[in-house]
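Predict the holo structure. Ligand: pyridoxal-5'-phosphate.
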Amino acid sequence: MKLETLAIHAGRAPDRATGAVREPIHLATTFERGADGSFPRGYSYTRAGNPNRGALEQAVAALEGGGEAVAFASGSAATLAAFTLAAQGGRVVCCSDCYHGTAKQLRDILPRWGGSAEFVDTTDLDAVRRALEPGATLLWVETPSNPLLRVSDLAALAELAHSSGALLGCDNTFASPVLQQPLALGADLVMHSSTKYLGGHSDVLGGMLVLPPGSPLIEPLRDFQGTSGGVPAPFDCWLLLRSLATLPLRVRQQSANALEVARFLAADARVERVHYPGLEQHPGHALAARQMRDGFGAVVSIQVPGGAAEAMAVAARVRIFTRATSLGGVESLIEHRASVEGPHTQTPQNLLRLSIGLEAAADLIADLDAALG
Ligand code: PLP
């Protein structure tokens, strides 16, 4: 089945008890045993399994072309679950431009579990090869990356990781399965902050890990999900499943809007630099055109002349964009990234990250035109 059909039908069926076209929200935390003590319908306790969570997991697995998905209460909880696979003396090699919370987990939490991490520019395959050499267990990559929109070659990274005995995990949050399917390119694990495009409306927090069919990683991850207990609430799963129906439409239109906005900004002398892989002059454009489809995503980062104060001043003047963190929602957001990322930030002080939404591109361009002063 095609992605658009899966987005609407995977994980879904009319409710067997009532015929309701949308599934009920199962708020119960516990489920009845049969007379023989078994759980005949497959559910015992909501931390271990819940019908709404199961439906969401099936749908996201199908969209990523995976075998199984494991849902968590946030993207960060999902990332940390993946890093448990590399704990106990394991070494993670991670892209140097990545979500700052992911870097913090690797810097602050992994060592407490006996693991270690190294950060490397994953667009440089020789550097990755060298970093993997002394027994890395997991290579972790974002492509396009947050916030510099760097593009890394997933098929090449999978080959490098596997030839040195490591797993490849890909944070696919920026692309979503509409634009990029890392499992088909050799990744062992796909992660999403479903707070972003999967949710799409800035009203639900969530995270997902997706594995290829038959992956041996399912057992430890399922065990970690139920035992650590960082699971999403049934209502959040229901909301996410509802959002998936419009995911292809939203992501394609947001990407088309982003390309228009990026082209306007790239041609404007008041902007020092535009980071967007959809622009021909972006160093990762050809690779992105090869490994992505239907668009280049809807996050655009810009650098304006000056420093933090000048960037903040531009953000202060927008009228349609909202000054807020996060991305992937239907409304456009603008953010001074370095001030959110804290003391370890390597993000340029004059950088603003734009999450392009579903408003008319012409209105967004007019808003930025006025804000640039
Ligand atoms: N990965 C990326 C690329 C992100 O942008 C984010 C959040 O901004 C996360 C992971 C963390 O997700 P969450 O905020 O759902 O914990």
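The chain is about 35% helix and 15% strand. The pocket of pyridoxal-5'-phosphate is lined by residues 74-76, 99, 101-102, 142, 146, 171, 173-174, 193, 195, 205, 207 (CB under 6 Å).
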